[in-house]
Amino acid sequence: MGLGGSWEPDAYGPDDIDVAEAAVEAALDSGITTFDHADIYRHGKAEAVFGEVLARTPGLRERITLQTKCGIRLGGEDGPGRYDLRGPSIVRRVEESLTRLRTDVIDVLLLHRPDPLADPDETAGALMSLHRQGLVRSFGVSNMGAPQITALQARLDVPLVANQLEMSLHSRDWVEAGVLLNTPAYASNGFPFGTLEHCRDHGIRLQAWGALAQGRFTGRQSTAAEHATAELLADLARKKDTTPETILLWWLARHPAGIAPVIGSARPDRIRACRDAAVREPDLTHEEWYELWITARAVPLP
């Protein structure tokens, strides 16, 4: 998301391509080979500058997994900000992404958000057409719950492979939902109960966007709980000979659902700070995992 310059619909330049190239190099150096995009990021410029990097780096495309998303339309002259999973729209967005990314196939296409007006048969038909043409290898979803996933999967001939959700030590509804049941606090939890279990049981890889919590525990603390959590992360990082960023990502990966974090940063130093999360197994005890959770939530578990 951080590639391509500003969020204004202006042109990108050589400096933006250099920034993208540095981010890709840092990721590869850190053992990261999956790159996540969306057609709307920076009005398409994030995909475009990544395509420029692919064009200037022979052999890179074969070394990586390329994932992108479609289904969100930014507001403009043609209408308000909205969701659009109509069949022809999906096909058109994928064709545009392929052009910007300068590739002939997308490894994984995620439906970015559910569209209440979309006909599920039409949506699935568009996906299967893209698959038969060899334009997309695999499909997944983003920001969807178990019933929505089940309804889409019933109409597809290939398995859904991913569900990308906001999940972090800051955005904890996904883990709180499992322990707040039968408490008054459950009513304010917006996470679709049973989604983790559904994904795990059906081989759908959970991907966590916002995994680094927008820096709230690694330099941008503003609350007492965030400061306490940052101190605990730093202590654990020293103990484990790694970085606080890695501890944050290990906290997700330690969950039995096998959550894959999406880093979401274009800064090479921040990407490299996550290296151990890619090359080492999560090194957190049961007690350390819970201590991080309880410190971040700032109140005892029910």
Describe this structure in words.
It is a single chain. This protein has 302 residues and is α/β, with parallel strands linked by helices. The protein has a domain at 1-158: NADP-dependent oxidoreductase domain (TIM Barrel, Alpha-Beta Barrel). The chain has helices spanning 14-29, 45-56, 87-101, 120-132, 146-153, 173-176, 195-201, 224-240, 244-253, 268-272, 275-279, 286-297, and strands at residues 34-36, 65-70, 72-73, 82-83, 106-111, 136-142, 160-166, 205-209, 260-261. The strands form two sheets. A seven-stranded parallel beta sheet has the order 1-2-5-6-7-8-9. Strand 1 (34-36), helix 2 and strand 2 form a beta-alpha-beta unit. Helix 1 crosses helix 2 (45-56) and helix 3 runs parallel beside helix 4 (120-132). The model has no long low-confidence stretch (mean pLDDT 96).
